C-alpha cells in the first residue's frame, strides 16, 4: 500500500511538472487603467485581438472591491486582496489596514519581493504612468523603476518599456498605462471618445509586443494584458459588471491558442500566475491561484 501511495505521489508530481510551461525566461505584464472588459468586442484593437486569437483570454476576470485603482494594482502585484495587503482605496499610499505580514522591504510581499529573494540576480522593471503606483511597489527590490512625467505620459511609458525590453531583457517587466481611465473620467465609459482612446492603447500594446520580437525573446516570453477595473458613466468604484469585469489575456510560450478561459479569475491570480510561471515559491499569505487553464497541458 505504501508503495502505491508513493507511486501515486510521484505520478502526480510528474503531472504538475508537465503542467508548468518550460523555457519561460521573460514575462511582460501590461496593465491598462480603467479598461473595462465590456469594451473589447466593439473596440478597434487589432494588436490586442491578435494576442487573443493566438493566445488565451477571459473577458470575465474580476477585480476586487472597491473597483478602484490602488487597491486593485496592489492586489494584482501582491497575490492577495485588501484584507491581507491593507490597501483599500483608489489612491492608497499606505495600507489603511495594517498589512497581515511584511517583507524586508516594509510592504506586503509582492511578486518583486519573491523574485528578489529567490532569483536575486534577475533583472526586473516597472514603468508606470500613474504616480499612485509608486507606494505599491518594492522599489529596492526592482532593477529599473521609471515613473512617467506628469501629464499625458502613456506614450513615454510604452516607449521606455520597449527600449528596456530590447536592451535589458528583464525577467519581469510591469508596464502601467493610465488610459483609458483618463478618458473614462473626463468624457465617459461607453462613449465614442473612450473607444477612440482604446485605439491608442492598442498601438502602445503593439509597440511593446514588437519590442519583445525585436529583442529576439518572443519564443521564451509570456505577455499578459489586464486592468485594475472598468467603469460606468464617468467613474468607478461600484459593483456593476462594467466596473468589476476586466480583461485577462495571455500570449506566448506555452500558452494555448485561441482559447477562452472558463475558470474564474480574480486579479490577485495574476501575481500567482507570474510566480508559477517563474517557478517561485509563493508565501502563505497569498490567496491567488495560477491561471493554469491558459496554458497547454494544464
TrEMBL record:
Residues 1-19 form the signal peptide. It comes from the Bacteria. Keywords: Signal. Coiled coil: none annotated. The keyword Signal applies. InterPro entries: Alkaline_phosphatase_core_sf, Phosphodiest/P_Trfase. One of its GO terms (molecular function) is hydrolase activity. The keyword Metal-binding does not apply. Gene3D superfamilies: Alkaline Phosphatase, subunit A. This is Phosphodiesterase.
Amino acid at each position: 500500500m505504501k508503495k502505491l501511495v508513493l507511486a501515486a505521489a510521484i505520478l502526480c508530481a510528474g503531472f504538475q511538472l508537465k503542467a508548468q510551461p518550460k523555457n519561460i525566461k521573460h514575462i511582460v505584464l501590461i496593465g491598462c487603467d480603467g479598461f473595462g472588459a465590456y469594451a473589447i468586442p466593439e473596440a478597434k484593437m487589432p494588436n490586442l485581438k491578435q494576442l487573443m486569437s493566438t493566445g488565451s483570454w477571459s473577458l470575465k476576470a474580476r477585480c476586487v472591491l472597491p473597483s478602484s485603482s490602488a487597491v486593485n494594482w496592489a492586489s494584482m502585484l501582491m497575490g492577495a486582496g485588501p484584507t491581507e495587503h491593507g490597501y483599500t482605496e483608489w489612491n492608497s499610499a499606505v495600507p489603511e489596514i495594517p498589512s497581515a505580514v511584511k517583507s524586508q522591504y516594509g510592504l506586503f510581499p509582492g511578486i518583486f519581493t519573491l523574485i528578489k529573494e529567490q532569483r536575486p540576480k534577475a533583472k526586473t522593471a516597472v514603468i508606470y504612468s500613474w504616480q499612485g503606483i509608486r507606494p505599491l511597489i518594492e522599489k529596492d527590490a526592482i532593477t529599473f523603476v521609471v515613473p512617467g512625467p506628469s501629464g499625458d505620459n502613456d506614450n513615454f511609458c510604452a516607449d521606455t518599456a520597449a527600449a528596456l525590453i530590447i536592451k535589458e531583457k528583464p525577467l519581469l517587466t510591469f508596464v502601467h498605462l493610465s488610459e483609458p481611465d483618463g478618458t473614462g473620467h473626463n468624457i465617459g465609459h461607453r462613449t465614442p471618445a473612450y473607444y477612440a482612446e482604446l485605439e491608442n492603447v492598442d498601438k502602445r500594446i503593439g509597440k511593446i509586443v514588437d519590442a519583445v520580437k525585436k529583442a529576439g525573446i518572443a519564443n521564451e516570453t509570456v505577455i499578459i494584458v489586464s486592468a485594475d477595473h472598468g467603469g460606468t458613466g464617468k467613474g468607478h468604484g461600484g459593483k456593476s459588471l462594467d466596473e468589476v469585469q476586466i480583461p485577462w489575456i495571455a500570449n506566448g510560450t506555452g500558452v494555448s491558442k485561441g482559447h477562452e478561459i472558463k475558470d474564474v479569475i480574480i486579479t490577485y491570480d495574476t501575481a500567482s500566475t507570474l510566480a508559477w510561471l517563474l517557478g517561485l515559491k509563493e508565501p502563505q499569505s497569498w490567496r491567488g491561484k495560477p491561471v493554469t487553464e491558459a496554458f497547454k497541458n494544464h
